[in-house]
Design a protein that fits this description.
mainly beta, 33% strand, 25 strands, 3 helices, Neuraminidase
């Protein structure tokens, strides 16, 4: 064998060895070890007024807790709205047996199991709720098909565990062409403004291209000032919204190019806005939402060019510098409908601090994801093992920052608290 041949073989062997060593190192850069955590049923003894289990009533009518939240008023109460339109309030205590009906607006709400992206979808308490008693809801209008309503309500002056059902003030109405992709998250930002997630209008493929259309509120995250009014509006537009003064653009828009954000949340420590955007054919994604950001729908799905089924891939790369990439995506081999969650800042599980908790409704899996904002990379994506597959509908937090997941339950036990494994 010639010297050059021997050198070539050594060179190839060295390269092969580098590949063997480098690949595991690259994989190890993202920690995927399962977390030593689990979930337990929260409020297992509570009877929900006006609702009975299938065993008690003989009718299959699952309890659908769409959120868990708190008023930020120092009482440590927990509020749990159902998708059918009842908000319950109860003591944050697993020994509790009683819940009160805080507000019942079922008569206003359109919900059907066959169109289960509609119904009562969002709840946010005003940052000054202790002083003004205001809270905001997002629901599908029973009396006007495919219409979503954001409304303000007020707590009763006579009973802290009751809202005034006659206090409704319509803040914003969103008409959409189809029943699905309603969005529905409401949250107040650190700036005191109300942020609203609105889906692209429904069906598939975004046929009206609402995601990229700045003249439409669909397929967007909105930002409004509910403490002031402007002109004929029941709210005002913050002066620093990104499209204020731009022709053919709605000034309420904060970010766009989104398909159907199903839950966004602010990190209470640093104010970063996290969102889970539900994919269509192949990819689910997690985005960090920034002012004026274009997240690519329906040009892209995740990091990838979006191609309608049966369509031809683009002749050239569609990656554009003006489109913001997700920080994480997963394939439909893993799950098919992301449920966006919250960043954990509670005290009960120190090892979970800073993790973005999210789930997949179809695969019934739950994860904690850590992101290095300075390095702009995910460092860990660790599954939280569940005793069974749980189709996670939503997330929530109590006043202490402890995190809950919710699911539809025929037994009325559809709220779980994330906790250390036994």
């Amino acid at each position: 064998m010639t010297l050059s041949a021997r050198l070539s073989r050594r060179w190839l062997a060295a390269i092969f060895a580098m590949v063997l060593v480098t690949q595991p190192l690259l994989a190890a850069e993202i920690d995927t070890r399962p977390l030593p955590l689990g979930v337990k049923v929260a409020f297992p003894h509570v009877k929900w007024p006006g609702w009975a289990s299938a065993e008690e009533s003989g009718v299959a009518d699952p309890l659908r807790p769409i959120l868990v939240g708190h008023a930020g008023d120092g009482t440590n109460r927990v509020f749990m709205p159902t998708q059918q339109g009842v908000i319950y309030v109860l003591a944050n205590d697993d020994s509790a047996t009683k819940a009160d009906v805080f507000l019942d607006i079922q008569s206003k709400i359109s919900y059907d199991d066959k169109t289960n992206e509609e119904g009562f979808l969002g709840l946010a308490f005003h940052p000054k709720y202790r002083e003004n008693g205001q809270f905001f809801v997002y629901y599908t209008n029973k009396h006007n098909p495919h219409q979503n309503v954001i409304a303000r309500y007020r707590a009763s002056k006579d009973d802290a565990n009751k809202a005034d059902p006659d206090s409704e003030e319509i803040v914003l109405v969103l008409d959409k062409p189809f029943w699905n992709h309603d969005g529905g998250t409401l949250a107040f930002g650190p700036d005191g403004y109300l942020y609203i997630a609105v889906g692209d209008g429904g069906l598939a493929n975004d046929p009206y291209k609402n995601g990229q259309k700045l003249s439409s509120l669909l397929g967007k995250i909105l930002r409004i000032d509910v403490d002031r009014k402007s002109g004929d509006l029941a709210y005002a537009i913050p002066d620093d919204n990104p499209f204020v003064g731009r022709s053919n653009a709605r000034p309420e828009i904060w970010a766009y190019g989104l398909r159907n954000v199903w839950r966004f949340a602010f990190d209470p420590k640093n104010g970063m806005l996290w969102a889970g955007d539900v994919g269509q054919d192949t990819w689910e994604e997690i985005d960090l939402i920034v002012k004026g950001g274009n997240y690519g729908w329906n040009i892209r799905e995740g990091f990838h060019p979006f191609v309608r089924k049966g369509g031809k891939p683009p002749a050239k790369d569609t990656k554009r510098p003006d489109l913001i990439d997700p920080i994480w995506e997963y394939h439909h081999d893993v799950g098919k409908s992301i449920t966006g969650g919250v960043v954990y800042r509670g005290k009960a599980i120190p090892a979970l601090d800073g993790a973005y908790l999210y789930a997949d409704y179809v695969s019934g899996k739950l994860w904690g994801l850590w992101y290095d904002a300075e390095g702009k990379k995910v460092t860990a994506n660790r599954e939280i093992p569940l005793p069974r597959s749980i189709p996670v509908m939503s997330f929530g937090e109590d006043e202490r920052g402890e995190v809950y997941i919710t699911t539809s339950s025929p037994e009325g036990q559809g709220v779980f608290r994330i906790s250390p494994a036994k």
